[in-house]
Design goal:
This protein is mainly alpha-helical. About 55% of the residues lie in helices and about 5% in strands.
Length: about 220
Amino acid sequence: MTTFHLRRILRAALLGLALAALGGCSRSCSKSQPAPPELAESPTTIATNAGTAVSSAPVVSPVATPAALSNAAPELRTIAAPSASTPEQIQRVATLAQKYAAVTVFDDRFEVALQIAEVGGPEAVKTLETLFRTETDTALREELINALINIGDCKDEKLSLLRLGIAADQPASVREVAIDGLIDQQDERALALLKGLLNDRDEQIRALAQHAVELAEEMVKHR
């Protein structure tokens, strides 16, 4: 099962909890609804048979290099993600962006989006945002946001795209994907964006945001 499939399952579960909460309360979502299990993706530590601690970190882009970890957030120090794009990455991403514009079939554009994410680095995230701004297909907008999960670090750039994704003028499905992405960030700024949705005009988004805030608060607390 791929990361994208797992993410869809987790999002569906989160949305199901939000809708269940809607069915059991009035226009304002009840805060007594129990929070779902944590979905933290931060590295965990397991013990081997010999008693030695081993870090089981999330899978990251193969282009990442340990030399660029000095600016990484503390909870991401074990993830080899570059703090700046290399000339090679910039050139590769530019080539893929041209390829994205040249193809029109959903599957082809989806594949190019994944390839951009595999390159990694802040330039890849910025390019995904540029493509998001011009993409008219709702499903592809969702996948451009989903592609962020394959890129380590780059939180500033990711938050810029996710902020666009949760905007009130986006389709509900795009906003739901962006909410999911904000939870993944384990960041106070992402939590603030989620809290801003608690008064959204869309009742379903408000309910989803309530559960997302509960998850994000736990993840920020235990990062």
